Amino acid sequence: MKLAGDFFKNIRLDKSEDGYKAIIELLPDHPVYKGHFPTQPVVPGVFTLALIRECASAVRGREMEYADIKECKFISALLPAEGLRVTLDFSLRDDGKLCGTVKRDNDTILKLKAILI
Prior knowledge:
Layout: E1 8-15, E2 20-26, H1 32-35, H2 45-60, E3 66-74, E4 85-92, E5 97-104, E6 107-116
Antiparallel strand pairs: 1-2, 2-4, 3-6, 4-5, 5-6
């Protein structure tokens, strides 16, 4: 499932001191919101995981996929009504180890440790 251009657009993807920082904007008219949930749209957790995977793929210049998710903690829901701009901070080692967070403003949405191949 590729979400770039359909569910979100990249605003920036930069190398940071500790890894990478991506700023993305969720696109409000995606059909997923009609079923998840019509009266109060919520970004599905699997879409949030895909955001980090796709940004890591952009860094590597090839499609990557999750081989293992070591830790995955959703701290709060990602509600489009509360803002469409999201920041992803992540590190990606040569062996595929990824550590990252997804934030909206100062609210942490997700903390993740995984292996990508």
